[in-house]
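Entry 14. Ran structure prediction on the chain below.
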Amino acid sequence: MRLKALLLLSLLVSFNLFAQTDHETLPYSVSGTVVESENGHPLQYVTVTLSGLKYATVTNSEGGFIIKSATKPQSVEFNLLGFKTASIPFPEDGSPVTVRMERNKLTLNEAIVISGDPYTILYEAMKKIKVNYPAQAELFDCFYRETVQKRNRYIYISEAVAQMLKTSYSRGSVIADRIAIRKSRVLTSPSKRDTLSVKVVGGPAQAVEFDIVKNNELLNVQELSKYTFAMDIPELIGDRMQFAIRLIPNVVETYPLYEGVIYVDRETLAFTRFDLSLDMRDKDKVTGAILLKKPAGLRFTPTEVSFRYDYTLSEGVSRVSYVGTKLRFKCDWKRRFIRTDFTAISELVTTDRHSDSIELIPRKESFNSREALSDVAAQLDYDSEFWKDYNIIEPTESLDRAITKIVRQNAGN
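Output, structure tokens:
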């Protein structure tokens, strides 16, 4: 499979463009924390939605969330793979809430649930793509965030509100799909020691180009023949049983293959999640697939390249809801013996959806996988009002501390 979209970073210290558009006011909001009922541990990646509305977000690494709406919702719903769906009334006083989610305990006979030929399940799911996914074009509001850590310290944080156009899944192609940045900001460490100009493919465009259900790069007979498949223990999303199909490379290719798990809805046979990583046995092969640019003399060694692509069932069809990537790598200069560890993470969540009176995104506004968000994001103070009319992923406490620290460092320079 040709790798088309992972993550795009360009860690430079000066940027000068800023994009912003008008947006509807979202006066109703609820915030809080989602935890596991048995032990109180925070739950990350929980999908948070409002009853009867199209707004959504996901919880951060500490289980925190905030979701806003233009109209008053009746209730808030929480879904996570392996947990029972939770629902609470929309709080009238606006005070933060704590939501406890219970693990789903399988009551079906696992021998029955797991049985089945994984190849047959995948091929049947492929045949049902045109039925299980939108047949018309839709426009999504999205929130996107990139962070880079040098060892355990943040050196780069960027965020953006974007609009993403997804055309009909009947087309079986992502060529006409586009994403455009509408509002953005970036913070970088002012220390010269933290400056590292490394560029790899991906960025916000990964949500368009890495749509595995649609891009026809993995889900075809020729490509699937390069893998061995096995049935894992099934999982539940809310009350919906999911087949869990593990894929393992069985050939050596000129490009890196995947390994990981594909989740398929047991009832509809819709692809629900791709939780994959690149086979890292040949790191030179992975480097050649993802690296676009680096300084001469810098040695770049990837240690992990992983992806997650989620689809959520709504109104009878499945739509993209969350895209996340993680890139771990080491860098060192020739003639030096100390390697530095870096971790780059990107997340995109679809926060609202429009299906009527859609305006196409002009090609000149479309973001591509070889652009860096830092090329169009502005160096701004992280004021509390910046995102007030947008749904976002809440910053974690550690990220908040990093933001404050970098702002102070920049102010002192």
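The first strand starts at residue 28 and ends at 36. Will compare against last week's run tomorrow.
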